[in-house]
Amino acid sequence: MPAAATPLRFSRLLMTGAAGGLGRELRGRLKAYCDTLRLSDITDLGTAAAGEELRPARLEDREAMLALLEGVDAVVHLGGVSTEQPFDLILQANIVGTYNLYEAARKQGVKRIVFASSNHVTGFYRQDEVIDANAPLRPDGHYGISKAYGENLSRYYWDRFGIETVCLRIGSSFPEPKDRRMLATWMSYDDLERLVMASLTAPVVGHSIVYGMSDNATSWWDNTLARHIGYRPQDSSDTFRAAVEARHPTLDPSDPAVIYQGGAFTRTGPFE
Amino acid sequence: MPAAATPLRFSRLLMTGAAGGLGRELRGRLKAYCDTLRLSDITDLGTAAAGEELRPARLEDREAMLALLEGVDAVVHLGGVSTEQPFDLILQANIVGTYNLYEAARKQGVKRIVFASSNHVTGFYRQDEVIDANAPLRPDGHYGISKAYGENLSRYYWDRFGIETVCLRIGSSFPEPKDRRMLATWMSYDDLERLVMASLTAPVVGHSIVYGMSDNATSWWDNTLARHIGYRPQDSSDTFRAAVEARHPTLDPSDPAVIYQGGAFTRTGPFE
Amino acid sequence: MPAAATPLRFSRLLMTGAAGGLGRELRGRLKAYCDTLRLSDITDLGTAAAGEELRPARLEDREAMLALLEGVDAVVHLGGVSTEQPFDLILQANIVGTYNLYEAARKQGVKRIVFASSNHVTGFYRQDEVIDANAPLRPDGHYGISKAYGENLSRYYWDRFGIETVCLRIGSSFPEPKDRRMLATWMSYDDLERLVMASLTAPVVGHSIVYGMSDNATSWWDNTLARHIGYRPQDSSDTFRAAVEARHPTLDPSDPAVIYQGGAFTRTGPFE
Amino acid sequence: MPAAATPLRFSRLLMTGAAGGLGRELRGRLKAYCDTLRLSDITDLGTAAAGEELRPARLEDREAMLALLEGVDAVVHLGGVSTEQPFDLILQANIVGTYNLYEAARKQGVKRIVFASSNHVTGFYRQDEVIDANAPLRPDGHYGISKAYGENLSRYYWDRFGIETVCLRIGSSFPEPKDRRMLATWMSYDDLERLVMASLTAPVVGHSIVYGMSDNATSWWDNTLARHIGYRPQDSSDTFRAAVEARHPTLDPSDPAVIYQGGAFTRTGPFE
Amino acid sequence: MPAAATPLRFSRLLMTGAAGGLGRELRGRLKAYCDTLRLSDITDLGTAAAGEELRPARLEDREAMLALLEGVDAVVHLGGVSTEQPFDLILQANIVGTYNLYEAARKQGVKRIVFASSNHVTGFYRQDEVIDANAPLRPDGHYGISKAYGENLSRYYWDRFGIETVCLRIGSSFPEPKDRRMLATWMSYDDLERLVMASLTAPVVGHSIVYGMSDNATSWWDNTLARHIGYRPQDSSDTFRAAVEARHPTLDPSDPAVIYQGGAFTRTGPFE
Amino acid sequence: MPAAATPLRFSRLLMTGAAGGLGRELRGRLKAYCDTLRLSDITDLGTAAAGEELRPARLEDREAMLALLEGVDAVVHLGGVSTEQPFDLILQANIVGTYNLYEAARKQGVKRIVFASSNHVTGFYRQDEVIDANAPLRPDGHYGISKAYGENLSRYYWDRFGIETVCLRIGSSFPEPKDRRMLATWMSYDDLERLVMASLTAPVVGHSIVYGMSDNATSWWDNTLARHIGYRPQDSSDTFRAAVEARHPTLDPSDPAVIYQGGAFTRTGPFE
Question: Which segments constitute the NAD-dependent epimerase/dehydratase domain (chains A, B, C, D, E, F) (predicted)?
Fold first, then answer.
């Protein structure tokens, strides 16, 4: 059971992967909800703005991670490999790294983590299937398998140690949807912020799983089971539909990237 | 099978518990849908307005209840104890009283009842679970158990005698949400009126169960199974979210009132 | 697996039943999405507008159907009997006719069909039940059984031959809802167009089933399983609710047309 | 609702398809449960034994069917095409014929029918899936589609006219299992008799669906939903397993007959 | 959470309803599992055998019940009304009485109760339906409603106070099945003993529900959810089937006692 | 899709973990089903018997694994850490090792693997819950998480590369059940052999999950979904029940090892 209160405003919030695509976008936004925003990544984080702490660290460095989590109220864990890559890269960043993060949270008494999982944990469902968070996993590559590892790991840290996690199975968070698949998977940055903050501040989350998407007409994912999070998307890929369809008027129906929810991930690799 | 037609406008509508919080609110509203509004309670009902009939009665008085139901088209049953109280009070008002009401309905030929059940029939589900009307009951006290009794009783009067009931598992109907929990459970008075009237006038309801809540972003209850009622909430606790959160910026995660859907009911009593 | 690309704009689109109620309504609308709109029916189709091809044909005429499907990108199959009728009529138009259509599609290499099924495949569910596309069928007459035949047939052509179908379980598509039942079942013509076009252009549909209804407050059908189609209704029977209810203030609760989702179909026939 | 009592011993029982494989086997067995066993087929039925009535009739002959059902307590309907055949054969025997049978039952007041459906209504499920009677249908050919037609038709005759049916989704009823697939699908003749008699004599069946199989270790079908029938198989394909496996030590895993539950039916046809 | 160990052999076991049909049968059997068997009823309990304590008490007498539970390891609660009776009798014995029992257990620190619920909590399901413990309740009378009350009450005492209960939805426990319905519902006395002892001694039961029946071929209830109890019936109504069927060769299919699982209970009463 | 036939008798079968508890037991048994039994472990394998090939190899040695899988028809993968251990041990043997095994299978064209998963992937379900293979995972430690990794990995190799896997969620395979928990989880060695051989020889398995247990009266796991495997246990913990219970007459109900399915694993570690 959790022993520390979850506040609406945090004293110190940690975001990993702060130099990545989503991290750069959230960096300016999350500052509004905390006194100190601690930022970590393995690449350059630039200059600290007011209220920011820059803490470069490798996820696979256990001691560095232990130090990183010290004095932190909650974590937004975006760090790690975010595409299909050779196994050894994923192993270190996403498996060893996520283990290190949760062990550090346990030792430092951090009680809530928002974990950037991925829709690729269920990427081998077809695009004409609609699933929810209870559907058995069907990862579409070693990246998806590593995110499934993180979901299972965080479930354990909840059942055993009372550390709460919201797993965000993020679809495609970009300025706008780039292709026909993203008409289903797209999440605007504003909706991403809404989802992260709802996950950080909902009174009780235990171990929850929510798909990260905007209010798109086309969807493969049913978030009914996560209504307790209070996430209500305000944007929609529908705004961009006509333009996207005009750029991609036809699709190859024999292409796994068209058939499966995971898109091109389902035909990436193997690398050796 | 029901043998009497359900009209859109009622000749005589009975509302019990008319002097209670919800009763006082609905009193002025329901008059618009009927020629005569019969009102009953054990406490003072004030003066009868045009088209009102005031009929004080104790729910546990079988004869009084039989008389109360005479000549009535339909019933909105709000009467009884509405919080966790010592068993004997609940026994008389909510168990004996509800039995008396349904027996009177059977004898007087009343064919539809809107029964104010409560979310406390499932109050021991966690606040990070989302359930629907088919979830096994987990009442959070003797009050919730008595409402479960009423749900089962009314199911029997439908299966055996063709008396239709809509069970409203009301969340928290107040002028505005008072605390963080009510961001999930709140139902505005306007939405309450919408829900009661939809329940009274839907062509066929058999034995239906619907959670009574507004269109809140945070929710623990899925009303998909009750779409045939035609209830579409127009209000939302989201309007009040910022103010409520400002007043209650932190919560104690070890408090059952924070963990379970039933809130403080889950730690009220026992009284001896 | 499908072998031909599904475009957003079609070279030649075939619509059967083009002289029927929905056909006449869609005729002008579908032209915008294709170079050539081929129209077929057994009754008079009037004069061909620019870009139209008129091809009268009987569904039960196997050779005529084979010719009809030649050179077609996709089919909107509205043809056949659309109400409860004597068995022999339904047999020829809806069973033999649908078989002929799918055989022709197989031989001509047509890869996607939008099939006008009907809510009458589940018409013997009660009006106080909410179902989805996985609910076992309960047809309400020989018409409903013939539509169930078409759904099963099209499932086979997908599993065996890779021909995709979206089965539209159309509720009541009329200019406006005519009675209390249609407050649940109504679909505006604009929403019908949206649904047909979403079904024709969704990247992958395999064999999908979707109920055809507008965004009505009262509903018996849950389209969650079909969100991948991307159909988002814009209209609602709620606009007409007050007028409809005023015209039909009471209903006979012992009438099967009031009790069951299929309405009056559930008490039509038998014809001998 | 049914209006005639279902006895344990019948005055007159009708079995169609009496000259087919299962019919010949059941002919001698069913006589023990009735005073008169009426037998029908389109091919030679031989000489009538004591208590037998021979009534050759074509299923597609409506008048003949009406006469055939006269004075009958219950029907075991085995007649019709029982393998994948050209559509027109299946249409007449299995679609028109089954319609004729149920119409005759309605007119003659027959209240219970045991309908020989087939596992081929779900033949396109994979052999590594376990399904029950609520799984959406996936027929593996026009034969399977025609049996699905019969299941839907009989559901209607129950919902509308109170005629009860047990649909037997028969696997493979032969003296012994012939191949690896039949280790899952086999039903002994003794078990077939048990299943038919349980279906005829269970007090209430409404519209029930049960898979016809012996107590085989390997199985794809879960009959939990049909336990009210009281069918308890006594035989098992396991007795024959070693011999069958010895004769078929390897299988081609790319063969649809190995992959899908329908076996070779899934690759039979099309015939033109 | 429970705080007292559940032993395999009890120091003192309490059985209420000890003078009733099942109580008399279990009296001799339960003695083998405890040092002292405390027996209670409102009617004469005869003479105490070695190791027996006789404690007449009325269930509705709160003080008597408190005394009755003192020093007890576990309870087998068979007491109360066991057939459909006028409401006031059921109210006192089954509602007030069960409340008194659980309050006494709470105050006396008793941690496990085996509660004789009844199949009549789901008696309005049809005899051609198979249900499990998660099916929504459909009681068939005030008796069934009172047992549903006990199930909900005991769920609360588990969720709130950590008192474990196994609810036994007993079918028909008699020396042998008396009629066709009991071919489905029968439980031998030996199986009753097995079920009670498994419920008393299973390491962890929380709040469990199990249908009480022997290994009958015909069944309406699926106990899969209760396999953790370890109840394995050894008897079967099948032994008596031929004799029972011979005595009752026909049934009236319009009789609710034939249609519904609750049998004659579904048409007993109302008493005024 | 698999491209190689699965035989009943193998030319060369590989068993990893051959020096472990289950490996030593299966070594003598599997030889009967193959011409050559290749055995691997990191500890001493003794002397090769006729038809045996001894191939010591470390699972984390990618090249060694590639060589190990050469010329193999199928694999029984028992290797790796089989209890809760420090993370780094589990990481190498169970995560890197299982990855290496599947990559080697892919490169060497091996088409079926029997993977020794564990009940500890769902060890945080309570002992009064009954689950099946579709229940969301709740691992009880890093060992369980690593087995969940293997299940997800093997799902991917099926979806992407057509390599079939049966995941055996083995309970407790020992000569006899040692404690009360094992009355539910025990699997005899004979049943283990039956399960492994059924998994190796079933015609089609795709990606299947089956709990490994004997026919125990007490059970927490429902294998209905895996009936296609054809595993029918012949032994039961019931034989040992009296002796086990006599040795462990009481249990501490506050011990996680008593409450949760994972037993003592749920309170092992953390190791730092």
Answer: 14-181
